[in-house]
Amino acid sequence: MNKTPISSPLGPIVVGQFVGSNFAIEKILAVGSNCTIFSAKLNGNPQAAPTALKVENDEPSRNALAKEIHILRSIQNTKHFAKIIESGHHRQFNYVVIQLLGPSLRDLALRQPSYTFSLKILLKFAYQAIEALQTLHQAAFLHGSVNAVIRYKPLAPSIQSISALANHSTLQTLHALRQKSPEEDLVDVIKIISEYHTAQENEVDMINTV
């Protein structure tokens, strides 16, 4: 009697496992409906910075990660977006390794006693946000709503650079969705400045009427 199972599940990716070019999985950062994101580090290089390793089941019905990789590759030579370190196939998964993004603007605000920022910091944010949005539009991609959960990659203690304006899995080519106008983007950025400079909801409501 043959006791060998017909099929054996390959199982999920777990902490301590190696993926791709020897990237060691350290911990789970987020779990979504399409993808799981891990913190990973290149094995054998103690000085290597932690990275984000995103995986998705390799199934015909799942293509969010492939879209994200396509978008990130098309804007690799621009500022403000995470860089791809490696991508490929691991067992029954597709994966991509990118720079590990830092806390969101909202996370940073919660670390402040007043939950607000100086106008100087917010204007720096606004300048970089508009640059990043312009890059997406010029590359013929749409983006989700601009909000305070966008992620950052630290450049220096006093300067932050935008890494992602939205979940890249939601980005589509221009013919698929309605293009948001530059004016709408600007209003979204102004809303964030108002919220985190004054911390007063009534001022945000005033901007919403614009």
From TrEMBL:
- Family annotation (Pfam families): PK_Tyr_Ser-Thr (PF07714)
Q: Which SMART domains match?
A: S_TKc
Superkingdom to which the source organism belongs: Eukaryota
Coiled coil (residue ranges): none
> InterPro entries of this UniProt entry?
CK1_Ser-Thr_kinase, Kinase-like_dom_sf, Prot_kinase_dom, Ser-Thr/Tyr_kinase_cat_dom
Which segments constitute the Protein kinase domain?
A: 23-210
Gene Ontology terms, MF aspect: ATP binding; protein kinase activity
**Name recorded for this polypeptide:** Protein kinase domain-containing protein
The species is Streblomastix strix
